[in-house]
Design goal:
The complex is a heterodimer. Chain A is of the alpha/beta class. Chain A contains ten helices and nine strands. Chain A has a five-stranded parallel β-sheet with strand order 2-1-3-5-7, with helices on both faces. Chain A has a two-stranded antiparallel ribbon with strand order 4-6. Chain A has a two-stranded antiparallel ribbon with strand order 8-9. Classes of the chains: A alpha/beta, B alpha/beta. Bound molecules: flavin-adenine dinucleotide and iron/sulfur cluster (SF4) (3 copies). One iron/sulfur cluster binds next to helix 9 of chain A.
Chain lengths: 253, 304
């Protein structure tokens, strides 16, 4: 018990789909809760009313700045959590709430939504709408190794999490246009097709090997850029895929 | 993160030939496969075996597209479909675009995929950092990488074939890069060779930052270089690749020779891999000072 880390799920302006993704680890989630993490907060699952101190806060959803309670809660989350993880497109990049502009009953003034990184410092991003169960699982296991593991495990966890921390550092805006700005325009695209596979709304097709984004369809989730092997490709981690996948599997046995 | 500040660091991390358990020269034992294959028919034969044995239930391959020699990535679930994909198309085929769909409407649980080294990198990144690829990581059962020095856009290949080699695209039987030349073989037996110098300006720019020649991250990788015509050089890399390769050998799918006994062998493979990585590493480094006090992005340092 004492060796577990404490984890909370903080629900801002999200759809709970990120939490469902965590739950979609099925037995894997139960193993994580048995061996590595205590869920100390999560309004959907537990009757703890106020944000407690925790090692890792998994935050989903963006923040409505006209909603005082939300603003207060995201600030409190930062104070109470050692590591803040933005889970999903909304927390990382605003995602569909980027299109919010108020005017609906019964809070027509609720019109401005910001990704959490615009209000607090965020340590790790897990982009995607929905984020994948497997990436949430990997981050949970790595966070445990970082905080409770031996020296080698800490080293691995740090290396693994680095690009997800760098994404958090990079900014709070995302769009299919990232593929143009930061990959194609930079002379880096090699036509692999990962971006099209990653897009949840099929906004991306390939014309003669290069991505073509239908921007009217794009919901600004950031999955395409994060998945692109020419956004980040960390040679100190990815070539070790066999060993790392084995280690994660073993941890969840 | 101070990754890749020096060429030597990359060398060590990437390694010219990557990690491997076994390297041989090989060719398929199936005459029908050899007839249409680019080299030793390794890719088609290994997928055929894996499909027949139920090791995979489909493979993402590059088949015929809308125009002659324009590949279209598709999911072959039968040997007949697989057989239409043999042969190298020297232009971009976005193989990875099907990787999630394979697990959705196609309902595959055990996916095979063939691709260039960068596409193998994309697959492994997708397995370790699945952002938009739910349920894909565990379903990749056989990733076959093909060696690759560079690729071209469709328009580039067309330019090379129709303008420089003065042949019609639909009249071409085979294209090949080897022995320092770009070879175009016509249906009627004519052969045109272009010096590689002519082809350089047509290369896909994104290839110039690529630090992998022999598909280091595949389960099994294969290419023509190092082995005689009609044969392939094969690296068996992962535990999974080793398992499938051994079963295919036991089933009599391949003829093999120790790589040490063939000419030009691993020496040439290593030489070309070293040249590619050295040249492209230099390009990566030069990008840092591309402008005036400003540079271009380096994906190997992070997403910024
Ligand atoms: C762009 C490119 C550059 C290459 N450069 C080199 C090189 O420098 N040195 C070297 O030794 N070998 C190189 N090759 C590999 C070589 O041409 C053969 O593809 C390889 O040896 C496999 O031959 P095979 O007889 O085993 O495959 P076959 O049984 O003939 O099957 C070929 C397989 O390749 C796939 N394929 C064809 N075109 C593409 C494409 N554009 N993208 C992704 N998959 C494709 C097909 O789906 C098919 O499954 C290159 C291949 C490509 C596509
Ligand atoms: S994922 Fe592949 S095709 Fe898409 S932008 Fe990146 S390199 Fe290009
Ligand atoms: S193009 Fe698709 S994957 Fe990329 S940000 Fe838009 S919705 Fe997300
Ligand atoms: S040279 Fe590299 S980037 Fe270009 S197609 Fe080949 S493997 Fe991909």
């Amino acid at each position: 018990m004492a060796d577990k880390i404490t984890v909370g799920h903080v629900h801002m302006s999200g759809c709970t789909g990120c939490l469902v993704s965590l739950a979609d680890n099925y037995g894997g989630l139960l193993t994580i809760l048995d061996k590595y993490a205590d869920l100390v907060y999560g309004l959907t699952l537990a009757d703890v009313r106020h944000i407690p101190k925790m090692d890792v806060a998994l935050v989903e959803g963006s923040v409505c700045i006209q909603d005082k309670l939300s603003v207060q809660e995201i600030k409190e989350t930062r104070e109470k959590a050692a590591v803040v993880v933005a889970v999903g497109g909304c927390a990382c990049y605003g995602n569909i709430t980027r299109f919010g502009r108020g005017g609906q009953p019964n809070q027509p003034q609720h019109e401005s939504y910001l990704p959490i990184g615009d209000l607090i410092k965020v340590d790790v991003y897990i982009p995607g709408c929905a984020p994948t169960p497997q990436l949430i699982r990997n981050v949970c296991v790595m966070a445990y190794l970082l905080l409770k593991g031996n020296k080698d495990q800490q080293e691995l966890a740090k290396k693994y999490l680095t690009p997800l921390m760098q994404l958090a550092d990079r900014g709070t805006e995302a769009c299919g246009c990232d593929l143009m700005y930061d990959v194609v325009n930079q002379g880096l695209c090699m036509g692999c097709g990962s971006c099209a596979a990653a897009c949840p709304v099929r906004a991306i097709t390939h014309e003669y090997g290069k991505p073509n984004v239908n921007r009217e369809m794009c919901i600004k989730c950031g999955a395409c850029y994060a998945q692109c092997p020419r956004s980040f490709f960390n040679f100190d981690v990815i070539p070790e895929f066999e060993g790392i996948m084995d280690a994660i599997d073993a941890a969840l046995k | 993160m101070p990754l890749m500040r020096h060429s030597n660091e990359v060398r060590e991390m990437a390694g010219e030939l990557g990690k491997y358990k076994l390297c041989v020269s090989a060719r398929s034992a199936d005459k029908a496969i050899l007839k249409k294959a680019q080299d030793g028919g390794i890719v088609t034969q290994l997928f055929k075996f894996a499909l027949e044995e139920g090791i995979i239930d489909g493979a993402i391959v590059a088949g015929p597209g809308d125009e002659p020699w324009r590949p279209r990535p598709f999911i072959a679930t039968t040997v007949e479909e697989l057989m239409t994909s043999s042969g190298t198309k020297y232009n971009i085929s976005p193989q990875v675009s099907w990787i999630k769909e394979a697990t959705r409407s196609f309902g595959l649980d055990k996916i095979g995929i063939v691709g260039t080294p960068c596409q193998m990198q994309a697959v492994r990144k997708g397995q370790l950092y699945p952002v938009g690829l739910r349920d894909v990581p565990d379903k990749i059962k056989l990733a076959i990488g093909i060696f690759c020095m560079e690729n071209f856009s469709y328009q580039s290949v067309k330019q090379l074939v129709e303008d420089h080699a003065a042949m019609k695209m639909e009249a071409v039987k085979k294209m090949e890069i080897g022995k320092g030349k770009f070879w175009v073989y016509g249906q009627r037996g004519q052969v045109v060779q272009l010096p590689l110098k002519v082809t350089h300006k047509y290369e896909q720019p994104g290839c110039h930052v690529c630090l992998d020649y022999v598909a280091n991250l595949a389960d099994v990788s294969t290419g023509s270089v190092g082995s005689p015509d009609g044969w392939s050089t094969v690296f068996v890399r992962t535990r999974n690749g080793d398992d499938i390769w051994s079963k295919a050998i036991a089933a009599g799918c391949f003829e093999t020779k120790p790589i040490e006994q063939v000419k030009p062998g691993l020496e040439l493979v290593t030489k070309l891999a070293t040249e590619k990585i050295t040249k492209n590493q230099k390009t990566v480094e030069e990008r840092a000072k591309f402008g005036v006090n400003k540079g271009l992005r380096n994906p190997y340092l992070g997403p910024k």
